[in-house]
């Protein structure tokens, strides 16, 4: 049975109106959006902007940022030299002070030093002034000469304003002496040292700082076999004792030895 041929539908000439209506709808929506954007509230826009930024930041990978300290909060550490221990500093100051005393003695005794009759030395013990006995005393005597009194008075002027202890030691040669005043060289050396101490006291040196010691013929500084050596050994040494701390070591007492088995 043959199919019936459908009747051809007539052409619809109004279909363009559908597209035109869609275009107008989109255009209307566009203008509405433009109007809404132009009149948006600034506060609400900022809130929306921050919300969008936060959302996008959560989606992006986190990158480490270098730490930049606040310049105002940076503190600079001052590096100073290590502090000198108090004990070491005291030792240095004492040596400097003793050196000053030595130079003062050198100045007042310069003529005798140039003649070789006086020697000034400095050690850890202090400043030592070695004066030849021929400058101070007559042979076999213990009375100071006028020349020696002048020289010792100059030394006393340097020491009077100081606070160091002073030890005066008398020395002789090894030739024996025996008279009514000095039975031996020990008495002679001790009285000579005492004569210097008395002069210092008279010139203003505190007697509590002074000590007189007779050393006799011991501790020679030259050979006693020659007249020149014996003359060198007859001397008086004035030592300005340094105020340096002493190192003390206690000597242990040995216990009883155990009996051998």
Topology, element by element:
Blueprint: H1 16-38, H2 42-59, H3 86-108, H4 110-114, E1 118-122, E2 126-132, H5 133-136, H6 146-159, E3 166-171, H7 185-202, E4 210-216, H8 227-233, E5 235-241
Parallel strand pairs: 3-4
Antiparallel strand pairs: 1-2, 2-5, 3-5
Helix pairs in contact: 3-6
> Main β-sheet: number of strands, strand sense, barrel status?
5 strands, mixed
CATH superfamily of the largest domain: OmpA-like domain
Number of helices: 8
Q: In terms of quaternary structure, what is this?
A: single chain
Please trace the helix and strand order, writing H or E for each element: HHHHEEHHEHEHE
Query: Which outline best applies?
Result: rod-shaped
Poorly predicted segments: none
Helix share, percent: 40-55%
CATH-scheme architecture of the largest domain? 2-Layer Sandwich
Distance between the termini: 150 Å
Radius of gyration: 55 Å
User: How many domains comprise the coordinates?
Assistant: 2
The CATH topology of the largest domain is 60s Ribosomal Protein L30, Chain: A
How many strand elements?
Answer: 5
SS-based class: alpha+beta
Percentage of β-strand residues: 5-15%
Q: What is the spatial order of strands in the main beta sheet?
A: 1-2-5-3-4
- Return the average pLDDT rounded to an integer: 79
**Top CATH class of the largest domain:** Alpha Beta
Describe the structure.
The relative contact order is 0.10. A five-stranded mixed beta sheet has the order 1-2-5-3-4. By secondary structure, it is α+β, with helices and mostly antiparallel strands. It contains eight helices and five strands. It has two domains: 39 residues, no CATH class; 156 residues, 60s Ribosomal Protein L30, Chain: A (2-Layer Sandwich), CATH 3.30.1330. Helices cover 43% and strands 12% of the residues.
């Amino acid at each position: 049975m043959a199919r019936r041929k459908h009747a051809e539908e007539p052409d619809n000439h109004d279909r363009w109106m559908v597209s035109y209506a869609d275009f107008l709808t989109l255009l209307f929506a566009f203008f509405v959006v433009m109007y809404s954007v132009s009149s948006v509230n600034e506060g609400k826009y900022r809130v929306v902007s921050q919300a969008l930024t936060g959302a996008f930041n959560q989606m992006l990978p986190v990158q480490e940022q270098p730490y930049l300290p606040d310049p105002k909060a940076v503190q600079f550490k001052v590096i100073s030299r290590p502090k000198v221990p108090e004990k070491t500093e005291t030792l240095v100051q004492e040596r400097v002070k003793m050196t000053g005393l030595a130079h003062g003695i050198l100045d007042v005794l310069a003529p005798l030093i140039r003649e070789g009759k006086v020697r000034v030395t400095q050690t850890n013990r202090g400043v030592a002034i070695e004066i030849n006995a021929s400058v101070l005393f007559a042979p076999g005597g213990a009375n100071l000469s006028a020349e020696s009194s002048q020289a010792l008075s100059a030394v006393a002027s340097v020491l009077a304003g100081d606070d160091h202890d002073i030890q005066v030691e008398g020395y002789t040669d090894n030739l024996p002496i025996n008279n009514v005043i000095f039975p031996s060289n020990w008495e002679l050396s001790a009285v000579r040292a005492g004569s210097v101490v008395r002069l210092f006291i008279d010139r203003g040196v505190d007697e509590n700082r002074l000590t007189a010691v007779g050393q006799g013929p011991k501790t020679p500084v030259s050979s006693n076999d020659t007249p020149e050596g014996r003359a060198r050994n007859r001397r008086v040494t004035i030592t300005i004792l340094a105020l340096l701390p002493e190192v003390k070591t206690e000597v242990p007492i040995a216990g009883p030895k155990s009996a051998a088995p």
